[in-house]
Amino acid sequence: MAASKLLVSDMASVVDHVPSNYVRPVSDRPNMSDVESSGDSIPLIDLHDLHGPNRSDIINQFAHACSSYGFFQIKNHGVPEETIKKMMNAAREFFRQSESERVKHYSADTKKTTRLSTSFNVSKEKVSNWRDFLRLHCYPIEDFINEWPSTPISFREVTAEYATSVRALVLTLLEAISESLGLAKDRVSNTIGKHGQHMAINYYPRCPQPELTYGLPGHKDANLITVLLQDEVSGLQVFKDGKWIAFNPVPNTFIVNLGDQMQVISNDKYKSVLHRAVVNTDKERISIPTFYCPSEDAVISPAQELINEEEDSPAIYRNFTYAEYFEKFWDTAFDTESCIDSFKASTA
Ligand code: OGA
Ligand code: NI
């Protein structure tokens, strides 16, 4: 029986309609005819010159992309093409395994550091999403690698290589973003405790009625910064100036988006960005976001240097631990776009 399947990937292939628990209310559907195509409108930052004499130019590009968009694409990012290819292949092979092999990793417990699940948070949400995902913690790698799936056979090695390479890229991005805020280059990195890195492998099966449901509904990422790798199938959309813009995948570029912690640390100079994933009838889609985040015990607050009570820029957010924030994030189950408002400083 299709309805008894844990994962949407094992249900999707045997249904010709979207089951009712995936159907969104009419007021909350993708409405593809309203979506704009990304074209040239999304900033593309070439990191090639970041460490040369033109660094200040590139830092200005970061300032512009982060303040007016909150998302951008990057090329010449230093993650080898081969590493990316192997990661995407390992992800695809993982989801091609038999149902019995995959469900060994299934858990609905949002606190587990390695787990396969479906939708977003099945224990809390009212409408399901057309997505399965494998979620892994991957920094420090040695704390988690033994929990990761051991099949396909290369999975651990390939994922460790990819995660290490993307982490080096993120540290470079954090320095550039810190400088673009007028802060010392290690400032943002020093604000997030011992650091954390999570990864998701999102698998969006083909969907018979993509106009009725989402792969992921509109949301903002809870973490600091997200570096997204996607295959050649479109699906990601970002909200900008009142419109949804579709990202058409460009080989060997990553999409970077700012998350809620960057908004807090920058005291609203930079905003985390609303985005969503839609599905389609023709092709399955895989995306692999790296969610770079504070360690759980890190106390997050707006950077002191960006606060000036006299000049009318008081701290917009109170102090909190990332553990507190992250728990709230899963609890909201995407009923709201973000839980950031409940971390605002009281204005009393
Ligand atoms: C996410 C996300 C977008 C995508 O996993 O948080 O926004 O294109 N994914 O899969
Ligand atoms: Ni997201």
Automatic annotation (TrEMBL):
The keyword Metal-binding applies. Keywords: Dioxygenase, Iron, Metal-binding, NAD, Oxidoreductase. Residues 194-294 form the Fe2OG dioxygenase domain. It catalyses: salicylate + NADH + O2 + H(+) = 2,3-dihydroxybenzoate + NAD(+) + H2O. It holds the Pfam family DIOX_N. It comes from the Eukaryota. GO terms for molecular function: dioxygenase activity; metal ion binding. The keyword NAD applies. One of its GO terms (biological process) is defense response to oomycetes. Its cofactor is L-ascorbate. Belongs to the iron/ascorbate-dependent oxidoreductase family. This is Fe2OG dioxygenase domain-containing protein. It comes from Arabidopsis thaliana.
